[in-house]
Structures are given as structure tokens and as C-alpha cells.
Amino acid sequence: MKSARLCFTFIIMISCVLANDNENTYHQMRLNLVRPNDFNRKLNYSLDDLLKISKYADIENILGNVEDEDNTVYDDSFDVPLNVTASPRVFSVSPVCLNHTKAIYTGLEGGEQWALKMVDAAGKPEAGLMSMKLKWRGDYDECVGVRAVSQYKFNGKYCSVSVGYGKLPINPITQLPAGIDIGMCLPESCSDTDTKNLLNQTLQRVSNKTVYVIYATCVETLDSYDMRAKIVLAVIGVFIVTMAIATVYDLIIVQRPQSSKKQPMEIFKNGGTQQNGKSNGVFVIDDHKSPDVNIIKSGGTEKPSSKYEEKFKPSENSIVEGKEKYTPGILGQLLLSFSVYTNGAKILNTHQGAGTLAAVNGIRFISMTWVILGHSIGFGAPNMSNLATFFPKMISRRSFMGILNAEVSVDTFFSLSGCLLTYLVLKQLKKQKGKLNWFMFYFHRFWRLTPPYMLVMMVYIALFPYLGSGPIWKKNGLENNYCEDTWWYNLLYIQNFRPITDQCFAWAWYLANDMQFYVISPILLLPLYFNKVAGTIVTAMFLGGTTIATGIISTHYDLGLSTFDKNAMDYFNNYYIKPYTRMGPYLVGIYTGYILYKIKCTFKINKFVNLLLWGVFTAVASSVLYGVYDHYNGKPFSTEVASLYNAVHKTAWGAAVCWVIFACATGNGGFINTILSWKGFVPLSRLTYSAYLIHPVIIQYYVYTRKQMVYVDDHQMIYDFLGNLGLSYAAALIVSLAFESPMMGLEKVIFKRGQKK
């Protein structure tokens, strides 16, 4: 029956796609994505192979010759393709899988619906082969819904196989040969190895070409939670119960007395954290990832931001009801750290005090939006059916360079971090006559970032495999071996010294860099405080060192200009995630913070000079973003020019960002400052850190639960991006309420932060 032949031999049709091509197919396709003007190759099809497949009928003979013993096992290494001109190999398949597979053939001969569904659910070639649509997923739901009714009882199981032709180049990300992905519907008794060997046996019998299965991955349903997941669920349960008790306690015991007297709830300036607070020598500082950002004050003084706030400012955690005071004890204060009501009020409060550098809120949110946009497109690539034509089309647009260069959005955060850190530390040094509690300087930073970071990572690693299903869903999650051997690199913030493919929670490379910059920051900050010349020299030496190192590394590895360019893995591992190549914007931010400290955020610039400076830095930023257009459109940069660009463009971008900070802080920002200071940015800015932690999980969940490929155009990109943005910030609010805000509250209670002596 021809349906039976299709069930096991249609995948040979992919050999026709590559029949007259060579091993450069994938490499050529990758170059086409970067340089669309070079896309002049066409795929040829071999009618002889098609005829041979259609005439081949001896399926039972193929299955009968599949070895069901373990003494002859095929070498599964993908770098040894089949050589069907020699004597046929024998592949080991488990007896149960073999019998169930034969039952499909019997079912087809008898016209059984379940057998026909298994054939129908398999992926098949579709229109657009010449546009490189080489991922044929089939129908996942139809496959897993199959219930075989024969002498054997089994269910359908969806398997994804990658089929290669000849010797294929290695995909730099997966470290596997780049083949054609096909969805197969097989009995649930077949393992990954069974599937690979069964199909290889079929392939070598029906084609005289070197066609072979590179790998096969079958989707498994996780019926029960493992111990790892159970522990994490228990931890989540503890947090939920604690938050519920704390919220009830807050509303009934603490807030209700205030409401009865119509007194407003306690207002915490800067989202509840006193940025420059001091208690018993405890040093307090937050940076760009803190939910409380509004920290730079005009004239360098701390004052109540309004008469309203000054009037109702509480004293020593006391709650006033008439003449009575309710003061929670230490346990009560610790419990209140988990109150959803109080923490939610702090996060969503849009009040901004007078003299606050409110523009930082807008810069932070817009930059985070840019990060999510870049990741939405980059992470979504596996689901794009028309990637080979869509990407070249996008690159031909000059406006798309802003997305292709979204990497500099991270440099914005480096600049903000360096600037705010320096400004606050120098002010604190001045108040305490050159002395700081250096233990708290480091402890606060570690405590501020690490608990929410580790908690989010724990939940993601343990529970992600149980959250979805689909043809490309990873049954063991997206992390190698559940990060059992690598999680401690993240805890110590040194994972960026491992290859990107071996990292856990890979997008946290940024946190590692920022923490490393923070650790060495006193080497820069102390010279700036004690001696202007010495501080300037040290900063310049660091800047020169990172610039030279970046240029040398870029030249040595012949790097491209982005992760979409040539030598992608070298770009990631040796340049993109290393601190000594990413410190430029941070150093520019440090010196900007020093200038703001010295001038006390008051510096009037002549109107014409101000316009000139805005024009200069706008041109610098535009050159960084759009100056690479020719490189991606037929006029690639030489190694030397690419190295120069890599060495200076991030620092140049950081300088442009720091100009915006400086201009807005000193009253020279005009309408730009008005836009960036919109009150709506305040709560969104407070959620930035949580959004950074959680947004890749949201995007990857969407990508890996898709049942079919997506035809991408401008409208689809917009919808995907806005959906990812909205869901990421909604999830960030939950993460902040559950993990981030409580940890900040606990620190405040334990170390008496923000309380007067």
C-alpha cells in the first residue's frame, strides 16, 4: 500500500533537496542571512530519486531486516554518515518498538483510522523548499492523540528527526550537523535510539545517496514530579503562605487603624528604600537594577520631596491611631517584608520627589524594552518558517540596524550602573570623611541581586520541563543536566568565563560582568575622591586597556560585528561576555558620575552649545547603530575596520547615554527630559531587574510550545514583541512581590537601614 511506503520513506524526499548540492548548503544559507545580495543559488531536485522512492514497496522486508538484538549496534556518532555503496549496516532496534512499528503497516493495510492518523501526522515537504523551508513538523496533537487498536496496544509518540545528506557543517550553537528537521509519529515504545536506527535502516535501503539521521528526539510526557521539582514546589508554597499571612497581618493589624482615621499609608520615598540612608555606619547604595532608581538630588542634599510626604512621614515604624502608636516587633517587621499590599504600593507608586533624576526611569525602561525586542526576534528564530527570506529582507532595511545592534542596550545599563554608583559613593565618602563600611558595600550588593536571581533560576530549572509540551519541547528543560555542575558559577558571578554553551541561565552573563565591575570599582572610586588627577589617570588607563584588549581579540579571532555575523561562537565566548571587553561604557559612566558629584548637578550650558552637543552625541549614537548597514549589505568591513568598530563603539554608545544623563540632571535636557521623566516609567523602572531575569523564560516558553512554524512579517513581529513585553512585566511584578521586594525589606529590618540614630 502506498500509504505504508509514505509512512517510512517520505523522509527520503529530503535527499532530493540536496541531491545535486554539496556540503556547503548550510554554510551558504548562513551567508545568505547576512549578505542577501549573494543569494543566487537554487536547489535542484532529482526525479530519479523520487521515482525510486515511489516504486519501493518492500517495507516489510526493511522492517524484517532490522536487527532486534543488541550485539550489532550502529555507531551513533553523527560524524560517520552512511555509506550505502558498501555493504548495508545492521541497526539495533528494541523488539517492542519493532513489533509496534510493524503493526502500523498491518493497520494501514486494513484501513485502520489510528494507523492512517500516524501517517497523516508525520511532517511532509511543503511549498517553499527553494526558500529553505526545511522544517516539517507535522501535526503534534494528532500524533499524541493516537490510540492503537490492534494485537498491540500503544499510543502515538511524536519524534523529531534531523536528516542530513553527505558531510554537513557543524551548527555553531547546537554543535550538531545542520540537517533538515522532520516530525515523525511512532509508537510510544520507541526510544530516541530506536527511532534513529529504525529510520537509518530504511534510509540506506531506499537511497543510493549518503542520507542519514543525525539525531532523533522523541517528546516524552512527564507524568510525575521528580524530587527536585517537589522541593521547589514546597519552597514556592512556603513563600505563598508567608505572603498571604503577611498581607492579612498588614491589612488587619497595621493598615486598618490608619484607614479608620483616614490617614494615608506610609509613603516611602524612592519606592521604599532610603538610597543614601545611614545607620550605625551602614552604607546603602543601589544601582541601575534596583527598583528604586530616583537617587540623584539637586545640590547633593537629601530633603523631603514634598510637604505631603514630610507631613505624613512616619517615625521609627510607628503606626498612629489617634494618640496611640502601634509598633510591630522584630517578627512583625520581618513578616511585613512579605506583605503584597505594602510591597505592591511601593512598586506602583508613581510619586517623584523634587530634584530627582527622573529621566533615569525612562532610560531604564526603554533599554529593557529594547532588550526584550532583540531577544523576541533572536529566540524566536527556530519557529520562523521563512527565516531564510525574512532575515535578508530585514537586513536590507536601514531601520533594522537598530534591532540588529540591540546589543548596545546592555551597554546603556553598564553606563547607568557606573554613573549612579560613583555619584552615590563619592557623596557617602564626603559625608563620612573618606570612610565607608566596605563589608556592607559588598554585602548589600550581593544581597540585593542574589536571592531573587537564585530563586528565579531555581524555579525555572526545576519546573520549566513540566510547564508545556510540543514538537520541539525539551523534556529535560533547556539547561544542560539541570545545571547540576554549573549553578555555583552563577552564585559566584563568574559564569562569563565559561563557554556560552556550558553556561546555566546564560542571559545572566550580564550580571556577572556588572558584579565584577562593582568588585573592582574602589580601585577607581578612591583615586577620584582623594585626587582628581590620579583618579582621571587611573580611569583613562582602564579605558585604554579595555579598548586595546578588545581590538586585539577582535583581530585575532577575525570577529564580525554582532552575534548574527561570522564566527558567532568566538564572538560570544571571547568578546561579548568578557568583562575586559565590555568595561568601556561602565568607565564612561563612572567619570560622568564623578563630574555630577563635583558640580552638584548644577551646570548651565549656553543654548547654542547645548544644541551642538546634543547634535554631536546624536550623531555618535546614530553612527554606532546605523553605520554598519553597508557591512551587512554587500560591502563587508575588513578585519581591521571591524576590530576598530568593536573596540570603540560600545564606549561611544556609553558616552552618548551619559550625555543624556548629564543633560537631564543639570537641566539641559529640554523635551527629552520631559519624555523620559513621565511618571508612568517609575513603576516600570522598578520592575526592570525582575523583568531582566524572567523575560527569556517567557519568550522561550512561547517559542518551545508552538506546535507549528510561524510565517513572520512585520505584523507578526509586532504582536510577538508586545505580547512578550506585556507578559514579561506582568511576570516581573509577581517575581518582585515574591522574591525581590521581600529580600530588600528583610535587609532593611535586619540592618536597621534607613532609621535614624
Please report the number of helical segments: 31
Low-confidence stretches: 1-64, 67-87, 262-323
Q: What is the distance, rounded to the nearest whole angstrom, between the alpha carbons of the first and last residues?
A: 89 Å
Percent of residues in beta strands? 5-15%
Strand tally: 8
Silhouette: globular
What does this structure look like?
The chain is mostly helical and 757 residues long. Helix content is 55%, strand content 5%. It has 31 helices and 8 strands. Helix 1 packs across helix 7 (113-121). It is globular, with a radius of gyration of 30 Å.
Give me some keywords for this one.
disordered N terminus, mainly alpha, four-stranded mixed sheet, 757 residues
Sum this structure up briefly.
The protein has 757 residues and is mostly helical. It has helices at residues 2-9, 14-17, 25-34, 47-55, 59-64, 95-109, 113-121, 140-144, 192-206, 227-260, 307-311, 330-336, 340-348, 359-380, 387-395, 401-404, 408-431, 438-463, 487-491, 509-520, 522-530, 532-556, 568-576, 579-582, 584-599, 607-626, 639-665, 670-676, 681-686, 688-704, 714-750, and strands at 135-136, 156-165, 180-187, 211-218, 278-279, 282-283, 319-321, 324-326.
Write the layout of secondary structure elements.
Blueprint: H1 2-9, H2 14-17, H3 25-34, H4 47-55, H5 59-64, H6 95-109, H7 113-121, E1 135-136, H8 140-144, E2 156-165, E3 180-187, H9 192-206, E4 211-218, H10 227-260, E5 278-279, E6 282-283, H11 307-311, E7 319-321, E8 324-326, H12 330-336, H13 340-348, H14 359-380, H15 387-395, H16 401-404, H17 408-431, H18 438-463, H19 487-491, H20 509-520, H21 522-530, H22 532-556, H23 568-576, H24 579-582, H25 584-599, H26 607-626, H27 639-665, H28 670-676, H29 681-686, H30 688-704, H31 714-750
Parallel strand pairs: 1-3
Antiparallel strand pairs: 2-3, 2-4, 5-6, 7-8
